[in-house]
């Protein structure tokens, strides 16, 4: 992937003031965590989104997930997200991938099986998930269900951004994902959430657009 790291801007910054803020933030954060790789760009974006430089050390990249995600975007594969807050945050321009939410897609299963709505959505949409982009920022139960399907070879996503937050199964769900042969981006431990999920995806969209110019 050929892309110049210097003068790297944000397609989400659509006004001169927004661009100025973005560039200042990048300069400050890059001096703290480095600027030598594409992965560093994602680390920077997540640090900016959270205001926490320590987030940089939590991110884990497995099996070249950035290239896998860019390839999926190029091929206009669907982006599946766990909740509507993540869907709302993902940039809608710079790509042609539709976005679908797990929550609300399998409520009949949630009621009949007594499982979470996000887990039910994964099960309801499992026939569509292979070769897609999956983003889970809040629901460990959905990530565990997805990992079970991947482990059973029922689904093979192109890439999984799995960064659920919380104290019940969040760390465990991400550890499961890291042990699977699928391109993934995760956070270590209990930390994660919508800001990191959205920042990661939006930065990859940013990289996708810049790499095609």
Task: Describe this entry's structure for a reader.
With 213 residues, this protein is an alpha/beta fold. It has a single domain, classed as 3-Layer(aba) Sandwich (Rossmann fold). It has 10 helices and 6 strands; from the N terminus they run H-H-E-H-E-H-E-H-H-H-E-H-E-H-E-H. It has helices at 16-33, 38-50, 65-74, 84-89, 107-113, 117-124, 126-129, 140-151, 170-178, 194-211; strands spanning 59-62, 79-81, 99-101, 133-136, 159-162, 184-187. It has a 6-stranded mixed beta sheet, sandwiched between helices. Helix 8 (140-151) links the parallel strand 4 and strand 5 (159-162). Helix 1 (16-33) packs across helix 2, helix 2 packs antiparallel against helix 10 and helix 6 (117-124) runs parallel beside helix 8 (140-151). The longest helix is centred in the first third of the chain and has 18 residues, at 16-33. Residues 1-7 have low confidence and may be disordered.
Short structural summary:
The protein has 213 residues and is of the alpha/beta class. The chain is 49% helix and 10% strand. The protein has one domain (16-211): 3-Layer(aba) Sandwich (Rossmann fold).
What tags apply to this protein structure?
single chain, 213 residues, alpha/beta, Rossmann fold, six-stranded mixed β-sheet, 6 strands, 10% strand, disordered N terminus
